[in-house]
Amino acid sequence: MPKPEPLQISRFRSTDVPDQTGKTILITGANNGLGLQAATVLAGAGAAIVLACRNQNTGKAALAQVRAAAPNAEHHLVRIDLSDLASVRAAAAEALAAVPRIDVLINNAGLMAIPFAKTVDGFEMQIGTNHLGHFVLTDELLPALLAAPAARVVSLASIAHWPAKIKLDDLNFERRRYTKMGAYQQSKLANLLFSGELARRSEAAGTSITSIAAHPGVAATNLFDSMVPPIPGAVTMTHLGLRVVGSSEKEGALSQLYAATMPDANNDDYLGPTQLRGMRGPVRRSPRSKLARDRKLAADFWAKSVELTGATYGLLEPKSKSKR
């Protein structure tokens, strides 16, 4: 694997985010964690934010925080449940009615290492929420993305994708043994396969959409809370430990902020920390596993996602088959 080219800013900070005035950015899971950190920074840089959240109570609080950061922009709160494809499509319709174009879509929301459960549509919960929900959302929002002069789709992946395997004939763990981390790892590999295939399909169709994946390293967010035993003080201690080996929420959001805004973030980039096997450090172009780079697997997985969800991506039909 060739050594990745360095980024324009070697020690990127939120204060390095370029002016975003006039841009509209939709972020899933913007009511807490990395999503809220990114939403607040981007609003402060001048962007209008569409917060797509399942929990409307914390969503309203997040909307108030974003409005406080940028009172002159028009921000919106949209309800979305990524584990329910009908809700995803309804949320997309609501967003399209509210904003004429979307300059950046950040597919940020996700679940990590939860007990086995199924989505409304019968998918294993982690692949259903972390990948299939975002797969449908991105397809539904293509009209608004294509209306932007140079739209970006940022997909949140994870260093957890490295040991992942993906079974196209058993994505939902109907025949193999379910493990919390195994399902999470599969969903994060899915995010990288999706991001790479979207980059290639966008290029083949001659669109200006840029698809970029990002990972936060190990950030002290509530994503880990499902793995903490129900002992008083355990969550607080876990977050302190995560900051020691990894980073804070603010630092964890930097990779998606770079992917969403910086001019040298390229189609099919994968951005995130690279120190301590990707757990911490400044934003860099990051390596990905052999499976995450497998173009045939990505194309087959895309076809499987279409089959499962009915999302067609008809607006990304290639101009010439010779480009594929």
From TrEMBL:
Gene3D superfamilies: NAD(P)-binding Rossmann-like Domain (3.40.50.720). Signal peptide: none annotated. The keyword Oxidoreductase applies. Keywords: Oxidoreductase. Belongs to the short-chain dehydrogenases/reductases (SDR) family. This is Oxidoreductase. The lineage of its organism: Bacteria, Bacillati, Actinomycetota, Actinomycetes, Mycobacteriales.
